[in-house]
């Protein structure tokens, strides 16, 4: 059967203070395979994070538009049994059809969303339907307080991870409309244009005529948002004050020995995913965690080899070009190999048989 994977990005906003508003980047994946609710949940947890949970009318309309494109009568969402979300999220928004849920014949314990009305109804969990999964990419913190670039950098590093870095058009699309403010600091600065976390900057998105380094004094970079130039960059004087965007990822070392697939399932069930390593900063942080793992050898990360085509990929679809493979450590193509960070080889990446049981590192956004 053919899987039609259409992902849509949404900013899930949860304000925690008048100054700081964290935003989790969610991607929705419509899967045009008909499965029971339980099978759909297993599929989402294996390939993404979980069946979708819905917390606002905006999310609901996005889900409806995804399924409506394909003229689906109804698609599974993550609501079940005593009406809890399968992801563990609290139920703070509902949109039941009138008279629903009615638990007809005492056997309707799972929820589907009607594509023509956005309304929910309960139905038998054993029916076969298409479904919508979600995955969480990154968490951003938009700081609604004007600071110089270096003050912004200090705040991000003290409270989160760093000023935001942008490595692809996909990442740019995630943040370019993140606020009604017209411009924000990002982590790029003039050191042959490197990111503040130490990454090189092969991807760039300068506005027309930029960088122009007026007065030889424009060494930091801002990004236009929510205007015709949204997503475009401009060099500016670092002492200017504007709003800014921090990024954050939390890594968790699990000191239990599991196979790679067991570790993968554990991370997706309890956190977000097995750890990906997109840059040198993440490599350093994960290496520090790995030092404290139980036993010798390696620690599982989210790298997997495609057994058909032989290439390596991150399970969370990370597209960064950062690499830290040890010499001769990628193994033979077409083998059942998974990626680990090796404590005994200076924390370089190496392959290991996926059935080996190791500690592992998850991340949570």
Automatic annotation (TrEMBL):
The keyword Ligase does not apply. The keyword Oxidoreductase does not apply. Residues 28-134, 135-247, 251-363 form the C-type lectin domain. InterPro entries: C-type_lectin-like (IPR001304), C-type_lectin-like/link_sf (IPR016186), C-type_lectin_CS (IPR018378), CTDL_fold (IPR016187). Keywords: Disulfide bond, Signal. Residues 1-18 form the signal peptide. It comes from the Eukaryota. This is C-type lectin domain-containing protein. Gene3D superfamilies: Mannose-Binding Protein A, subunit A.
């Amino acid at each position: 059967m053919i899987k039609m994977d259409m992902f849509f990005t949404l900013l899930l906003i949860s304000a925690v203070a008048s100054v700081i508003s964290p935003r989790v980047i969610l991607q929705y994946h419509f899967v045009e395979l008909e499965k029971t609710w339980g099978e759909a949940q297993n599929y989402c947890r294996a390939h993404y994070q979980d069946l979708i949970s819905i917390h606002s009318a905006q999310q609901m309309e996005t889900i409806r538009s995804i399924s409506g494109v394909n003229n689906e009568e109804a698609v599974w969402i993550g609501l079940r049994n005593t009406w809890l979300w399968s992801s563990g999220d609290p139920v703070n928004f509902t949109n039941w059809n009138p008279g629903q849920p009615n638990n007809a014949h005492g056997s309707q314990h799972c929820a589907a969303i009607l594509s023509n009305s956005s309304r929910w109804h309960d139905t038998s969990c054993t029916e076969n339907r298409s479904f919508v999964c979600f995955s969480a990419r990154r968490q951003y913190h938009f700081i609604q307080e004007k600071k110089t670039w270096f003050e912004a950098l200090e705040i991000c590093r003290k409270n989160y991870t760093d000023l935001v870095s942008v490595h692809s058009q996909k990442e740019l699309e995630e943040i370019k409309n993140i606020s009604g403010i017209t411009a924000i600091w990002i982590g790029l600065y003039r050191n042959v244009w490197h990111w503040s976390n130490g990454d090189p900057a092969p991807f760039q998105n300068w506005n027309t005529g930029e960088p122009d380094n007026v007065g030889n004094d424009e060494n930091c970079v801002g990004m236009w948002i929510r205007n015709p130039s949204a997503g475009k960059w401009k060099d500016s004087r670092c002492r200017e004050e504007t709003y800014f965007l921090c990024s954050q990822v939390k890594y968790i070392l699990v000191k239990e020995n599991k196979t790679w697939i067991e570790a993968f399932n554990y991370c997706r069930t309890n956190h977000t995913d097995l750890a990906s390593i997109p840059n040198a900063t993440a490599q350093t942080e994960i290496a520090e965690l790995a030092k404290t793992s139980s036993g010798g050898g390696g620690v599982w990360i989210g790298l997997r080899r495609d057994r058909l085509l032989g290439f390596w990929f991150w399970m969370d679809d990370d597209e960064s070009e950062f690499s830290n493979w040890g010499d001769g450590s990628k193994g033979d193509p077409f083998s059942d190999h998974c990626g680990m960070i090796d404590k005994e080889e200076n924390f370089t990446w190496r392959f290991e048989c996926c059935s080996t049981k190791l500690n592992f590192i998850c991340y949570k956004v």
